[in-house]
C-alpha cells in the first residue's frame, strides 16, 4: 500500500475493511475510549482511532495497540507506530491490524486498573517448590487481604496477558465457577494506570520483551520480585543459553520502578547491576531487600513414623541434603566427603531429597556407584511436603554448601525445624546462618566440607549448642513476608498512580 502523506486524504472515505481487509471489533474501540476517558467518536474506524489517541503520548499509543489488537506490543512496534502516526493518518490503525494474531480479533479485552500481578508460570505449575512456593504463599495472602488485585497469566505464545482459568485460580485459593475452564476462553487483560507487579521470573523471551515495553512506555508503575542473579554471577552452573535469556529478563527489569529481592545479599548484587545502568543513561529501579520467611511445616506422628521407616537405617544418624542435583548445589563433594568418612569406619546414612536437574548426570553416576558398593546412601525424588518436613526433624544435621543461592530455603527450613545446617560461608546462606544454628563451610574446599561434616557427626556438645541456637531463632512467617512485601513493593507502586489516595 502506498504511504499517505500528512496532507493526503486519498483514503479518508474508505472503510477500514476496504483499506486493510480486516474488521476491527467495535467493542474494543469502546473499551479504548473508556480507558482514555473520552467519548467514542463517530466515523470510520481509522478516523476514530486517530481522534482517540494522541501519537505524541506514547503511553496512549501503547494502550491503543494493546487494546485494539489484543496483543501487548514490544518496544520496536510502539516506537515505529508512534513515529509513523504523526505523519500518516492511517498509520496507527494499520499497525494495529498488522498486530492482530489469529483468533484474537474475537476475544474479549478488559482494561484493568489497581493492582495487576503476573503469576503465569506458577498458575500452570504442578509443583510447589522454590519460586512457585513463594508466589503461591504470597499472592494467595494478598488476595485475601486486598480486594483490588487481578492475578494474570499469559496466552500460549506470550503475546498477551489473560485472566486465570478456574483451575489456575484455585491454586491461589480462588473458587470462582464463572471463570473459564480453558485458557483460550479467558479474556485478555491490559493493565492501565495499574500497579503492575511481576511475582516470578519472567524469563521467556517473548514475555520479557513485552514486559520491557510495558514498563518503559505504558505509564503503569511496574515492580518485580527478584530471586537471584545466578545466570550472570555463576553462568557456568546454568544450562547453555540461560544467561542470554536471563539478560533479556534484566533488560525488562531496568525499566521497573521498584524491585524487591528475596534477601539482602541479592539486593547488594542488584545494586551492582543497577550501577552499571548509568553507562546506558538509565537510572534503574529502586531496590529493597525483603528476606523470605523461615517456616517449619507441621508434621504428624504418622508422617514421622513413615519417614523414619523409609529414610532411616537402623540407629544410624541421618545426614540430610535437600535440593535438586545441579552443579550449583555442589552435591558431588558431599558424596566424596561421605565416602572418605565411611572408609574410615564412621557410621551414618546420607539422604538426598530432590529431583534430577541440568548437569546432574555426574552426581547420579557417582551416587549409583556408592549405592552399588553398599553405602548407606539414598536418593529420593518426588518427595511430598510431609516427607520433607519429617526428614528435617529426623536428621542429625543437614548440608547445603551451594555455590550460589538467592536465599537458600533449605537452610532456613532446616533451622526453623530446629536442625543444624552445614552451609556456605558467603552470600544469602551466610545471611541466614547469622541468626544462629548453622556451621559455615568453605564450599570450594573438599577438605573443609569433609572436616566440618566429621565435626557435626562426632561433637555432640557442638551439635546441641547449634540445636539450641536454631530453636531460639525469631520466627518469621509467610504472613509476615506477604505483608512486608506488599508494603515495600506494591504500596510504593500504587502511590505512583495518578489517582492514588491513601
Write up what this structure looks like.
- This protein is of the alpha/beta class.
- It is built from 22 helices and 13 strands.
- It has helices at residues 16-20, 26-36, 45-52, 58-69, 75-85, 91-99, 120-124, 130-145, 166-170, 205-217, 230-233, 242-253, 264-276, 301-311, 332-343, 361-372, 385-394, 409-416, 427-433, 446-458, 460-471, 478-495; strands spanning 109-118, 149-154, 161-163, 188-198, 222-226, 258-261, 286-289, 318-322, 349-353, 377-380, 397-400, 421-424, 438-441.
- The strands form two sheets. Strands 1, 2, 3, 4, 5, 6 and 7 form a seven-stranded mixed β-sheet that branches. A six-stranded parallel β-sheet has the order 10-9-8-11-12-13, sandwiched between helices.
- Helix 8 (130-145) packs across helix 22.
- The protein starts with 15 loop residues before the first helix and ends in a 7-residue tail after the last helix.
- Residues 1-22 have low confidence and may be disordered.
